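Q: Hi! Curious about what 2-isopropylmalate synthase looks like structurally. Here's the sequence.
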Amino acid sequence: MMLKNPAEKYRPFDLGVDMSDRTWPSKSITVAPRWLSTDLRDGNQALADPMDVEKKMRFWNKLMEVGLKEVEVGFPSASQIEFDFVRKLIEGGHIPDDVAVQVLVQSREDLIARTFESLKGAKQAIVHLYNATSPLFRRVVFGLEKADVIALAVKGATAIMAEAAKQPETKWMFEYSPETFSATELDFAVEVCERVMDVFQATPENPVILNLPATVEVSMPNLYADQIEYFCRKLSRRDSAIISIHPHNDRGTGIAAAEMSLLAGADRIEGCLFGNGERTGNVDLVTLALNLYTQGITPNLDFSDIRSVVRTVEYCNAIPVHPRHPYAGELVFTAFSGSHQDAIRKGFAAHEQRNDGLWEMPYLPIDPADLGESYEAVIRVNSQSGKGGIAWILEHDKGLKLPRRFQVDFSRKVQEIADATGKEMHAEDIWHAFEGAYHLNGEQKYELLEYADSGILRTGGERLFAGRIRHDGVEVPVNGRGNGLISSAVNALNDSYGLGLEVVDFHEHALYKGTDAMAVAYVECKTPDDRKVFGVGIDSDTATASVKAILSAANAL
Ligand SMILES: CC(=O)SCCNC(=O)CCNC(=O)[C@H](O)C(C)(C)COP(=O)(O)OP(=O)(O)OC[C@H]1O[C@@H](n2cnc3c(N)ncnc32)[C@H](O)[C@@H]1OP(=O)(O)O
Ligand SMILES: CC(C)C(=O)C(=O)O
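A: Let's find out. The predicted structure is below.
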């Protein structure tokens, strides 16, 4: 049961230092950080069924396609699969020259030796050492004092240097993580890292990667940024360290924490695609990269075919990507609601007209096409939708450009169906509704069989419409006069059946289906009792499309 007073059980996070002179809030991000994907390590260790070698390989290939240059490929001393995968990458020549593999290891000599064994023959590699440093872990997990924790880290780093010296053909880089940094006293974190830097002989030419994980996210993201700025200020040889961050997402603010930490001085980010990882996950590299992209900053990662990335990650992790996941979810470019659809439709029209390449689109922070997505999913129709969305679908799917009042008429009909079914209406459902509403197929009360418009009789400027229609199954001739084809056709129907229709609006446009050109005509008519009826006609001949539109309106009575 939740407590009435949670303060009895939970304590607020305390930064422990004065950061009132913080500078990061007034900075901005102008370049992409160095990225490290830890999908194959931190992501993998959080899966119910860790990846086998085949899945790891598939994931690796996708990471290469995306353009990752640093990838933590596993914990090779942990299992045979992990070890074998590293060997396969090296022996199979799968690591491009500009890519560094990274492996994780605890501060334990046997595990370190095994780790180096896995890396034999690598051109370059990053060996990543970690041990927890926070008070809780010192007390509960290790039963160690601060000095012992420093000694543990130094011992691991020393063993790593000794192993690295045995394999001089590899270009080594070293990374150290004071695990649980986010909950560690800041001055102590600096002290441990400086001692490890000494052992790793860090210089500006050969910097050490100091990775400062929010192993568990314990504070608001601005406080994590404060921690990073403080650490960067206090580190005596800042120029000999690459400051890396490794946010998790326990409070749901991993992205914000990462972005604020870049402002605070971080150079590098470790995370996973779509935020897989322990518990609530590691920070999501896709969102971070595309957030930069939408600010006009080159992210150095390529998600031009985001759907294939989603497919690979879902297959390898056996975890679905959420439909609302930023940039990647299947619903994130979709508007169901009428006012959103209307704004997007107008946005696309304005975009086409401006033709300046700039993306200024209501409700869509990124052009789906940049990620290899089509515009088909942008507008989908249900009972929340309006005329704009329905018109968009008919235009995109069938090429029909409904006049405004026609849109209103048809959207009411669609709304009725959507309300009745409670379901989404797909493009083909909307088309069926359109055909039904305007009598484009099936039984028709008034059906055009033939008409003569050439060789027209002209008496006093009038035109004569002479046609044959099927009315309630019976073929009958109809004749009418008017000052044009449309008025003479309407009069033919009015004279024969007393319909009293008056055409108040008429539109037509060409319709291209493959190489065939068709014509569409839309009429709006008024009835004697002042009702509006709409009709549409589609034919390869423009004049016939107009006549069919009149009959369509008559059928709608
Ligand atoms: C935040 C993170 O994601 S850290 C990475 C975590 N990833 C993993 O653990 C996945 C791979 N791990 C494994 O396969 C195993 O844990 C192994 C192979 C590394 C070690 O297995 P085991 O030897 O059976 O140890 P086990 O995991 O049960 O226990 C951890 C022991 O290591 C100690 N330990 C934990 N972290 C470290 C460290 N960084 N350096 C040294 N010792 C450590 C613990 O104190 C504990 O010691 P104890 O047995 O004396 O109490
Ligand atoms: C090993 C470290 C970097 C880690 O995974 C974490 O702290 O989350």
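A: A fun detail: The CA atoms of residues 518 and 540 lie 4 Å apart.
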